[in-house]
Write a structure and sequence with these properties.
The structure holds 2 protein chains of 2 kinds. Chain A is α+β, with helices and mostly antiparallel strands. Chain A has 3 helices and 4 strands; from the N terminus they run βαββαβα. Chain A has helices spanning 22-26, 58-62, 78-81; strands spanning 5-12, 32-38, 44-48, 69-76. The N and C termini of chain A lie close together (12 Å). Chain B has helices at 35-50, 84-94, 106-112, 114-123, 163-166, 172-177, 193-211, 233-247, 272-279, 290-293, 315-328, 376-382, 415-422, 428-443, 447-464, 469-485; strands spanning 2-7, 56-60, 75-78, 99-105, 127-133, 184-189, 217-222, 251-255, 303-310, 332-339, 347-355, 368-373, 386-395, 409-413, 487-488. The chains are: A alpha+beta, B alpha/beta. Chain B: This is 2-oxoisovalerate ferredoxin oxidoreductase beta subunit.
């Protein structure tokens, strides 16, 4: 019997980011970096590096915008998948 | 595979910010990296988690957070600069179920509204105060705030704040915690994730205190203003954690909520009838019939009366007796005294207005219907304010008969001399009241009213000198002597 595996993901609402860089500094695992393209508000939005997220929520709490970042937990249960 | 949102947009915010003008409805108006956004999220999350959306009122300050009612899905109100604690007091007392959040910046709370917050804290009002301290005036462009650090350069302290000329930064948490009434005071920093999590707990604690009606809680949040302080995100956090926290140490300054019982405040009285009964326990509250209210033609129009004389002559008491006459007959009255700091000597005057309708200004400066002058200088000063057909009443013991009075009607009597004969100069005002009665009888009253009218004056004297029976009797005697001696000057 295998344990369910949990993975985490940061979802970025690109056009709600103001590019303040707080989340990039706050992330303990280097999941986020500053992007180079300007979004609708005219700021360089944050983007993902590809490093795995641990779901600590630090980026969410340090972000001053209400909905720019969302942290999602994916749970994979091998038994129910089978 | 199951997905779950661990951290996401709080339902304590509106889904979209429709109140915000302009095309952007998903973002807040704050600058990038602003501490307000972080604090807003923590408050919104707590409001949602505690299920208090429908009874929370957030008071928006003057400052960057003035538009916070765009965002929170609860009640919001904007108030004059620094007055959030005063308005919050009213909100919290009017309905004890209300959860009142006073959201204030350092310009609002620590500068213009510092006395307000201290008084509200000292009364132990049931408020949750979130104080955003960013060491600068953000909205106006970066001037020195009361919380600006020593040596910190701002628009108005280009050389850095000097403690010898601008004083020391104001330590609000320490000051409020020194009072007896507040139950919870903590200073947190909206810097690193670790500190923000502490702030989150502090905010939830303050709101819990409000829900349990424990009283006054204050959370001071050291907050970044990256635009005005010209710092990047990393520098901003270092400034908060190293420089600001050194002067404003983080931590719990007071937490006695557990040892306090929930506030029990007396229920407010809002029924106008009950208020009237409390304020005017005399006959007025019984309700006066329309006929009783109008014994004569005298109050058909608004009557504006000026009384003036030297301090100690009883000018103010005489005005008070006239106002009381109106009050006892359920008229709207105002009595506005004006006098110097000395108790005796100097000049004194007062304005009395009697009206059937609500009174606009209690100040009688012109269009005076009745001028009562007790000394010469008062007569000279105020006679020009008397209406063309107004009535002048003066004390001829002290005042010469004025010339060129045109159509004005003159009444006089030697009030001071009569009062001296009665044994005390202090009776001069009651003697003059007798002259007022004569004037009213002559000019305004029909025969039916005259018989009843002395009682109106007697009641006014009794009301003014209540509980002093001998004084009442002496003044009533003076009143009748005045009535016998007053005369109209015919020309």
């Amino acid at each position: 019997m295998t344990k369910p595996t949990r993975t985490f993901e940061v979802v970025i609402a690109v056009d709600e980011c103001k590019g303040c860089e707080r989340c990039v500094n706050a992330c303990p695992r280097g999941v986020l970096r500053m992007g180079t393209h300007l979004n609708k508000l005219g700021f360089p939005a944050v983007t993902l590096t590809g490093q795995p997220c641990i779901g600590c929520g630090g980026c969410f709490y340090t972000c001053p915008e209400p909905g720019a970042l969302t942290v999602i937990q994916h749970t994979t249960d091998p038994e129910s998948e089978a | 595979m199951a997905d779950k949102i661990l951290y996401g947009r709080s339902a304590g915010f509106f889904p979209t910010f429709e109140r915000r003008p302009g095309p952007i409805k998903t973002n807040m108006h704050y600058c990038p990296g602003c501490g307000h956004g972080i604090l807003h999220k923590l408050i919104a999350e707590a409001i949602q988690d505690f299920g208090i959306k429908d009874k929370t009122i957030i008071i928006a300050p003057v400052g960057c957070a003035v538009f916070s009612y765009y965002y929170f899905d609860c009640f919001g109100i904007s108030v004059p600069h620094g007055r959030a604690p005063a308005v919050g007091t009213g909100l919290a007392r009017a309905n004890q179920e209300n959860i009142v959040i006073s959201y204030q910046g350092d310009g609002d709370l620590a500068s213009i509204g510092f006395n307000q917050i201290i008084q509200a804290a000292n009364r132990g009002e049931n408020l949750a105060v979130f104080f955003v301290n960013n060491a600068i005036y953000g909205m106006t462009g970066g001037q020195m705030a009361p919380t600006t650090l020593p040596g910190q350069k701002t628009q108005t302290t280009p050389q850095g704040r000097s403690v010898s000329t601008e004083g020391y930064p104001l330590k609000v948490s320490e000051t409020v915690a020194a009072l007896d009434a507040p139950v919870y005071v903590e200073r947190v920093a909206l810097s690193t994730v670790q500190n923000i999590r502490k702030a989150r707990l502090a905010i939830r604690k303050a709101l819990t205190n409000s829900i349990e009606r424990k009283g006054f809680s204050l959370v001071e949040c050291l907050s970044g203003c990256p635009v005005n302080l010209k710092m990047h995100a990393k520098e901003m956090n270092e400034f908060l954690d190293n420089q600001m926290s050194r002067y404003f140490p983080l931590g719990v300054y007071k937490d006695i909520a557990d040892s306090r019982d929930p506030l029990q405040r007396a229920e407010g009285i809002y029924d106008p009838r009950q208020v009237k009964e409390l304020l005017y326990p005399v006959k007025v509250a019984d309700g006066v019939s329309e006929s009783f209210r109008n014994p004569s033609r005298i109050f058909e129009a608004e009557r504006r009366i000026k009384l003036a004389g030297s301090g100690g002559q009883g000018v103010l008491s005489l005005g008070y007796m006239l106002a009381t006459m109106g009050k006892l007959r359920n008229f709207n009255v105002s009595w506005l005294p004006s006098y110097g700091p000395e108790m005796r000597g100097g000049t004194a005057n007062c304005s009395v207005v009697l009206s059937r309708h609500p009174i606009g200004s209690p100040l009688v400066e012109r269009d005076c219907n009745l001028l009562i002058a007790l000394n010469q200088s008062s007569l000279d000063k105020y006679l020009p304010e008397l209406k063309r057909n107004g009535i002048l009443l003066y004390d001829e013991s002290n005042v010469r008969q004025p010339e060129n009075t045109g159509e004005q009607i003159l009444y006089t009597l030697p009030a001071s001399d009569l009062a001296t004969q009665l044994g005390d100069l202090k009776y001069a005002n009651s003697v003059l009241l007798g002259a007022v009665a004569v004037m009213m009888c002559d000019l305004f009253l029909d025969d039916d009213d005259k018989a009843d009218f002395d009682r109106v004056f007697e009641e006014a004297i009794m009301d003014c000198f209540r509980e002093k029976e001998t004084v009442v009797q002496a003044n009533i005697r003076a009143f009748y002597i005045g009535k016998e001696n007053a005369r109209r000057i015919s020309r």
